[in-house]
Amino acid sequence: MNNQINDLRTALFNQLERLADPNCVLEKEMLRTEAIVDVAKVLVDSAKTEVEFMKATGTIGTGFIPSTTKMIGDGSK
Q1: Rounded Cα gap, residues 69 and 65, in angstroms
Q2: 72 within domain boundaries
């Protein structure tokens, strides 16, 4: 894992696939899902903070958010 936002998306979609598997043990997967969701929420909140940082400083990318990310607008609301 490169620890970028795309890795978070991949992990979440992988978990959705495990939940959709007819052979999954739902109780076990729900515990895993709850843990993944809890961590994902923190990562999403962190990404929101990083976007605000990028807007405030005019920088592009933070490590977690790739430097190929383009800013939309001038950061004003």
Answers
A1: 7
A2: no
